[in-house]
Amino acid sequence: MSYDSTYTREIPLVEARSGFKEIDSVLTHPLDTKPTKGWWIAFAISFTALLIGALSLANTLYFGIGEWGNNQPVGWAFDIVNFVFWIGIGHAGTLISAILFLFRQRWRTGIARFAEAMTIFAVMTAGIFPIIHTGRPWLAGYLLPLPNQNGVWVNFASPLLWDVFAVSTYFTISFLFWGIGLVPDLAVLRDRTTNKIKKTIYSVASLGWNFSNRNWSNYERAYLILAGISTPLVLSVHSIVSFDFAVSVIPGWHTTIFPPYFVAGAIFSGFGMVSTVLIIVRKVFDLEHIVTINHLEKMNKILLATGMMVGYAYAMEFFIAWYSGNTFEQFVFINRAFGPYAWAYWIMVSCNVFFPQLFWFKKVRRSIPITMVLVILVNVGMWFERFVIVVTSLHRDFLPSSWAMYAPTITDFGLLLGSFGFFFTFLLLFLKALPLVSIAEIKAVVEGAQPSIHPHPHSSNGEHK
Amino acid sequence: MIKKIQNFFKEFNSREDDEKRSGKIYAVTSLFDTPNEIMNASTEVADKGYKRFDTFTPYPVHGLDQAMGITNPLVGPIAFVGGILGCFLALLMIWWMSDANYPNIIGGKPFFALPAAIPITFEGTVLLTGIATVVGMLVLLNKLPKINNPLNDTEFMKHVSSDKFGIVIGANDKNFSETEVRDLFQSLGGHSIQNVYYRESNLTDKTPLFDSKFIMTLIAVAGLTALVSYFTLNYVLYEVVPFDWMRHQAKINSQSPSDFFPDKAGMRTPVEGTVARGFMPYEYKGLPDSAVRLLANPLPASKNILERGQDRYNIFCSPCHGYFGEGDGRMNDQFPKPPSLHNNKVLNWMDGNIYHVLTNGQNVMPSYESQISRDDRWAIVHYVRALQRSKNAKDQDLPK
Amino acid sequence: MEFNTKKLPASVGKWGMILTAVGAIMAGAAFAVDSHRAMFGYLWMYMFLVSIGVGSLALVALEYLVGANWSTPFRRVSEFLSAIVVLLAVLVIPLFFGMHDLFHWTHADVVAADPILKGKEPYLNTPFFIARTGIMILIWIIFYLLFTKNSRKQDITKDPALTAQNVKYSAAFAILFILTISFAAIDWMMSLEPHWFSTMFGVYYFAGTLVAAISIAAYISVGLNEGGYFGFKVDYEKYYSFGTLMFAFNVFWTYIGFSQYMLIWYADIPEETFWIMNRMEGTWIYFSLGLIFIHFIIPFLILLPRSSKTNPNLVMFMAMWLIYAHAYDLYWIIMPTYFKDGFVFSWNELGFFILAFGIIALVFNYMASKFNIVPVGDPKLERGLHFHLN
Known about the structure:
Distance between the termini of chain A: 35 Å
Structural class of chain B: alpha+beta
Oligomer: heterotrimer
Number of domains of chain B: 3
Low-confidence stretches of chain B: none
Mean pLDDT of chain B: 85
Mean pLDDT of chain A: 88
Shape of chain B: elongated
Shape of chain A: globular
Strand content of chain B: 5-15%
Largest sheet of chain A: none
Number of helices of chain A: 15
Order of helices and strands of chain A: HHHHHHHHHHHHHHH
Number of strands of chain A: 0
Order of helices and strands of chain B: HEHEHHHHEHEHHHHHH
Number of strands of chain B: 4
Number of helices of chain B: 13
Strand content of chain A: under 5%
Low-confidence stretches of chain A: 459-465
Distance between the termini of chain B: 107 Å
């Protein structure tokens, strides 16, 4: 919560008192109008990136994953780096929609829908990588415990299988969460639109939602429960991703702090991405009084906090590696910081820990251009974090004769670019297809939206107690 | 084509919108302007003893539940049941698949290792909790989806979905009387008080879900999808790289030609002088047995070597020589009968001679160099020696 | 606003005295009988007081930092409890004298013969250890003084700028808290087994302190509110927040504990597993299984329904339960180093447990008699009193 300087009054979430009708028209405006030139340019860029990704994917599928730079000893590289990166991006959405909801941080309303959509698209993007990494993605059905002609089952002791369950559960629950948030808004659209085709689609998609308080009552309770289960879910997903590494015996991968460290990093990178996109979107779609500078400042504070957590984990890993007295542990960390991939390590540390320190200054937190630069650096830094973890731990292992360097190929870069194209193409379509801020939720936090009187309780027969 | 689709939708919608409202009254509706008004009004309506009433707001208004005297006691238990179910189903699945049905040792862990089962159990719990919550809330409690609600497409709904607050008192309430309700709304400060009538389609009990046409369509779609998938996977894609189950690979199978080499042969002969692992060249190859008198058995005559020798002997030698070396093997009718291994010639041979015969062959006996490894040949020599000794045992050979 | 706060009943002070006296006598006797064993009991008590004192200080900072207002009427409870950090500076002295009993790495001959311990010597050596301890306690005391001074000043001046200042201190303290509590855990508990290491250990202890601190705050706040000692009475919705936070912190502790255990179990590297094996041998296995039930399964199931989080008696009961659970957790961390073969709990250890509660009661009673039990000048108080869920 944020207050004015007297700490007695909360700063209103929506700047300038808006009427409900006005909120409807502002938030549905992007849906009712033809895309602007800016949108088309953005779409053209991201769709081009998507096509480049598609070409790289076709190349990978036809010739196999030998087209990538992965080779022994670096058997995991861009594929897994991108997977972890995109899964991490998704976590901010759930954090905003679930954890901040539980902590009654009402400022989340302005950005929740948008961040949840980002979660879904990010998880979709992330899901591509482990599947194509299997080499023959059309056989991905074998990842599930389905009866098959071989009579065997999947390996339940493998963290890679845990990933399958975690990511698919995460996608399903995020989709449900996002979906039930959309239902009332689709009903608003249904009642606003005059276009017959749209009306039919909205009528079906809104499931006949009718704004009845008996429905709202169950709805709100269900929303709370979903938020309650999404919170441990979001922790579990990135923890399980971290288990992919941490259950091994590879120095640099096997360390007990990985689960919370990955979660903090995921939230950090996710907020970085949400901020990056939001700064542009609020400008383009004219939502500066709904997604206010206060929102951005709060997100910057969360970036600062999670950046420090990530920094704590870097430091603790380093310290315990030395403290352990284990030569291999010590070597891996020295090699990270001063070996051939030191550049990647220091990009990671500076983007994730050093630069966000600027957010200590209120001026920086409230300056949009500086924020923009810093959040992009966070995105870069967090991608490199995964690169450092995956590649530097593998390229020099226990046996010096098998040491090698890793070099990505053009296909690797194409897929990385394509993943951004995939994500942003979906995001741009979302912006024009669905209200990007929850209409019902934003109405509920407008000043004067809640009654100033409190009801007295009824007994069951409708009489006063 | 697009015109046609548009027309279809137009028709579909106009039917929906202009559908005749039957004369039967569904409810009386009233609108209010502020949240405080709706709170008061809800309290009053509840106090008057109405049961079949509902309040409509564009967003959840806090305190309305208490004002209306309603609670939401079922969502939590539904979620809880889903969670318990998810937890147990996941544990059961993991235990049955990895311990009961197909136990497999993985990483030296127990077949069913609880710490490793916890992540998936957790995900299963969350998944079913979430699904139970959403389905329970939407379908069981809120009775959605329901597109033909008589209130939909009314002016009332257009207002409460946007900027007004409304109360509806249903005609099926036992205290319902149109005039009383209208008066009540009037006195509470409501405006736009209107009657809503049932649509004609609402009066019938037919559920569109069980419409035979709908079900037939579903079956047809499912069948078609299954057929198309089956043929695509098994016939269309069967020969298409990369979906061909890796049958076409850029490698040379044995016995197949290759354009890469000038002689078009895929299989290559090894470079001269190549020695395969475990196959040391035999230096007396082709020489008469007198040359190998001094070759000594490098293996000790220990129990397991003798057993190995027996095993090899029974496989490779016994078909002709017989199990006891008497030349009465099972192949006697097809092949010339070999001499007994207990004749004086063999008894007086050095170990090296027997080894030489095994390695080099003799008369009709071929060389066994490529079938039996060097150590195994020496083990057989030991075994043959044991056979000879047992067939020609002396008193001192008997155990005391 | 006027608050007719009641004085705490004399029984609190009386019981504090009795517990302290009984505890001190038993602890003294324990030292007299077996000082080596008693030193471990003392460390156990000390760590428990660190959890309560420093954890409470962290809760105070957390409230400022996130701008929560539901907890403002109860903030003084945590403030009073955080006064324990001042006592920690005195109570730490016996630890310095007992280092030789507690810490293997203080034995020069052992270190000389052990290349691993030799390698750790730049960190694990007596002067540096004492210096670190001093700095940590100093940081806690400084922030305790900063927070409470401003908070008390605000009672009179009602100046919102003081809140703003405390928010700034909180940001600094948040970082220092995580660092100090991690190194406290590493120094005082992890180095009991100097060969063992786990990067998660600091976070594990941190999670435990939060459980203990929120539970004791809930226990005292609910008790005082029900008894009408605050001069106001807030509705049950506020207990919901206590219940939820106890539940959430406890689940967080479980998450950290499980992750640490599972990763060590899965990788199965001898240099890590011995610490776990130590806790699974002999009767310790029952103690370890008990930890899972006492610290996770039972509180989880009881606190899960919404209704139990608004029931004052149940919230108080579960708060006390979780405080014990945290003590149980600390016992599980510290004691297997001394009792290698199986778990032992006797009057030698019980005395320290009683002493810890006596000290907490005395400190709280003293602070409550000296200072306002409600932060009457806090600008967020008004909103906190009229706080509603949703």
